[in-house]
Structures are given as C-alpha cells and as structure tokens.
Write a structure and sequence with these properties.
mainly alpha
Amino acid sequence: MNLGMYEFLTVILLTLGLGMLLSGVFTAYFGRGKSRRVGLSLIVVGALFWVGTYIAHSEEIFGDTGFGEIIKAGLFYVGAFVVGAVIAIAIFLVAIMKT
C-alpha cells in the first residue's frame, strides 16, 4: 500500500469522525431523552475514529509511514471541507431568507 492510499484513508476517517462529532454535538445540544443519548454516542464514536486513525497509522505499528505529514494533510483537507461547507450553508441560508 503506497502513501497515497494511507493519505486517502486517513482523510476519509478524519472527515467521518468530524462529521459524527459535529452531528453528535448538535443532536446532544438540541435533543431530549433518547435523542440526547444518541448525540452523546455519536460524539464518542466520532472521537474514537480520530483516536483510531492515530493508532492505526502509528509508526510503532506500520514503521515509518510519514504519519505526521499524513495527519497534517488530512487536517488541511478536513479544514478546507468544513470552510467550504460553512460557506455553502451560509449562501443557502441567505438565499432562503431573501425569498
């Protein structure tokens, strides 16, 4: 498996974990009863994806894979994704509110 595949999988796991964390925070904050428990579960699972990504790509297990560079690139891509999503949602909300 080459470095490109590690980077691809890392970005998938980081994005999935971030999505679960954010949806869990939203659900736990606005939900009641069972919804709040589901939100807390999403937060825990999202955090586990981030920790699991670190453990799965640690240098002790896979040797020298350039893990720091992969995480840096992954965080860059996830950050760019979040910024793009926020801009898209803002444009959508402005368009809906103007009509």
